[in-house]
Amino acid sequence: MNQQQFEYAYLFGAVCAATGETEALIAPWVNKEIMQQHLDLISKRTEPERHAVVIMDGLG
Known about the structure:
Elements lengths: L9 E6 L6 E6 L4 H14 L15
Antiparallel strand pairs: 1-2
């Protein structure tokens, strides 16, 4: 009997519904620092005087 092992990658993605612009981050693991990097990327791409809505799917 052989044990199966898998490697994982986590994809964080965002899309602007108005413009279609996207932002993505691929990480080998998930922690609060990775999530903060994702939020920082979204923040940098969000125009001043605009708001970003983040919806989490609850996985993980």
